Amino acid sequence: MNSFGKLRLGVNIDHVATLRNARGTVWPDPLRAALLAEAAGADGITAHLREDRRHIRDADMAALKAGLGIPLNFECAATDEMQAIVLAIRPHAVCLVPEKREERTTEGGLDVAGDEARLAPFIAPLRAAGCRVSMFIGHDPRQIEASARIGAAVVELHTGHYSDLHAEGRLDEAAIELQALQRGAALAHALGLEVHAGHGLTYDNVAPIAAIPQVMELNIGHFLIGEAVFLGLEDAIAEMRHRMTQARRGS
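Given the sequence above, the corresponding structure tokens read:
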């Protein structure tokens, strides 16, 4: 184990709600999935309440906050509506992400540097309410430095491009992207930010990200929910945890 400590696993349960909403029923229940993840050793649960409510809904967030014994990471866009909901629920953490209605999933990172004047006062009441505020960003040093300036506690580095390159077999380019993520993690840590990472991580590509010493948490969702169809959620999480631990140990 490196000197930075244990690598935590946050499990995103958005796509349990996607499956539920496809039939307009109450099954499967995202809270039940979250509790199974907790029992399987997840360190936290992530859920993204989108403006269009395409998966997680307001009642899900309230149920997760009330029912979980591990931290809830509330992902949302930086809008007045979402700020009010976060302040009502008061999750352990809130991760601000860019959001567009037409996207399939979150594309790229938040432009903190370009929106610094708005984001600094936006996060102030969230911090005052006791939420750990995270910025979901790329590895651009400008975005990392801006996140530190506005008072964020955490940056979550977007690993989507790395994951896509890896999946497409463009391993030389993936290695270059990995190096940029490593530099970003080192810079963020030097600036006093806690470093998380996530998006597109799988059994096949997680090890190099898990091995970055400054990364303290990985947030993984879509892949684990997909694997749960075949393995069950607890076994899918256990396998991811095993690969993360082996990578952290350098074995």
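The CA atoms of residues 146 and 192 lie 12 Å apart. Try to locate this feature in the token string yourself.
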